[in-house]
Write a structure and sequence with these properties.
The chain is elongated, with a radius of gyration of 20 Å. The strands form 4 sheets. It has a two-stranded antiparallel ribbon. It is of the alpha+beta class. It is built from 3 helices and 8 strands; from the N terminus they run αββββββββαα.
Length: 140
C-alpha cells in the first residue's frame, strides 16, 4: 500500500490518506480530501480543523471563516494564533466567548484597538472599554 502525502491524490483505502494527512479521508471520488470539519492547508499537504468558537487555535484565516468577523491573529499573551475578532469588532466579554460573536465597535473603540493591537491583552482592552463606555455612556 502506497501512502499519500498530498490532497487530491488517488486513493483506494482510507489509510492511504489518513496515515500522512491528518483530518483527511479517501473520498467517494477515490481522491484524498479533507474531512467535513477541516479545510485544506495552502500547501495541499495537510488538513486544518475549522474553528468552532472564538479563541480556538488556528494557522490561517480560512479556519475562522465560520465565525463572522473573525481572523487568525496572535492572542497577545504569547503570540499563539487564535480565531479572534477582527480590528473593527470586539467580544462583549473578553473573558467569555460563549456567544461566539464579534460585535461592531464605535470609532472610539476602533482607535483604541488599533492603537494597542501590537501589545495588548484582553484584560487591558476590557479595562479600556469600561473606561470609554462609562465616560462616553456607550452601551456595548
Amino acid at each position: 500500500m502506497e501512502l499519500r502525502t498530498n490532497l487530491d491524490e488517488a486513493c483506494e483505502i482510507q489509510e492511504q490518506c489518513t496515515a500522512n494527512i491528518e483530518h483527511s479521508e479517501c473520498g467517494e471520488d477515490s481522491r484524498c480530501k479533507c474531512i467535513d470539519d477541516a479545510i485544506p492547508h495552502p500547501s495541499n499537504q495537510a488538513c486544518l480543523k475549522r474553528a468552532t468558537g472564538l479563541g480556538d487555535s488556528c494557522q490561517i484565516d480560512d479556519q475562522c471563516v465560520d465565525l463572522e468577523n473573525s481572523m487568525c491573529l496572535p492572542d497577545g499573551d504569547g503570540g499563539e494564533l487564535k480565531c479572534l475578532c477582527d480590528t473593527q469588532t470586539h467580544v462583549r466579554n473578553p473573558d467569555n466567548y460563549d456567544d461566539n460573536k464579534c460585535y461592531p465597535v464605535s470609532m472610539t473603540h476602533l482607535y483604541l484597538i488599533v492603537k494597542i493591537r501590537s501589545n495588548f491583552s484582553y484584560e487591558n482592552l476590557a479595562l479600556q472599554n469600561e473606561n470609554i463606555c462609562s465616560r462616553e455612556k456607550i452601551i456595548i
